[in-house]
Automatic annotation (TrEMBL):
This is DNA replication complex GINS protein PSF1. Residues 96-147 form the DNA replication complex GINS protein PSF1 C-terminal domain. Keywords: DNA replication, Nucleus. The gene is Gins1. It comes from Fregata magnificens (Magnificent frigatebird). One of its GO terms (cellular component) is GINS complex. It comes from the Eukaryota. GO terms for biological process: DNA strand elongation involved in mitotic DNA replication.
Amino acid sequence: SEAKSGRTDLIFLIRFRHCCLLRNQRCILAYLYDRLLRIRALRWEYGSVLPNTIQFHMSAEEVEWFNRYKKSLATYMRSVGGEEGLDLTQDIKPPKSLYIEVRCLRDYGEFEIDDGTTVLLKKNSQHFLPRWKCEQLIRQGVLEHILS
């Protein structure tokens, strides 16, 4: 109000304050955008269920955003690959072989393969399974890829 009444020496301070506020706003938006990119990358790395240690460090709004992104990605994957859909989260790195040897790190229960065979995944048991069926369980920490 004093600047409007004729004190021109305050105009510089008002402009400087406004520039500082705009800079702070840009910094905050850049930080939030980077955080969203990292949360989106978590979906591709860990799958649809995040470990509690990671979820503990996320705000409620970030968890909500993750869940909406997860649903949106699932809807898209179902619409792309015909009847069964197409799982884009598998084979993030090109496979060297179709079957891999895995060790079960914790009791999981029965696991069915496409040919109808069921495998009982018990702690410390080792199996030779198709890579694409195991990749999600490896990311979740149920299985461990044994490198020979």
